[in-house]
Amino acid sequence: MFGWKDDALQRAMDADCYVNCPTLKTQSMDAMNSCKLDSIVDENVDGWLDKIPGDPAMELGGSESN
User: Fold this and answer.
1) Which of 24, 35, 42, 44 falls 20 to 30 Å from 50 in CA-CA distance?
2) Comparison of pLDDT for 48 and 65, the residue scoring more
3) In angstroms, rounded to a whole number, what is the distance separating the alpha carbons of residues 17 and 22?
């Protein structure tokens, strides 16, 4: 999934700015903080986890195979 619309990422990279880039649309902190979605998965995702949310086959801290 790509989270940037059209060429927004390239414009941000070309602008050489770090905060409130004139080439990008911005919103207030209040607007950002009010944008919330209810969780669609009923599982704990806060604190230390025994495994990655979504229960994939790979467990945290396990060995990798090539």
Assistant:
1) 35
2) 48
3) 9
Q: Let me know if residue 44 belongs to a domain.
A: yes
Single pTM value for the model: 0.34
Assess if residue 66 is contained within a domain.
no
Contact 52, 58 (CB under 8 A): yes
CA distance 15 to 32: 22
Written in H, E and C, the secondary structure of the chain is CCCCCCCHHHHHHHHCCCCCCCCCCCCCHHHHHHCCCCCCCCCCCCCCCCECCCCCCCECCCCCCC
Domain count, the chain: 1
Tell me if 45 is assigned to some domain: yes
Range of the structural domain that residue 48 is part of: 1-60
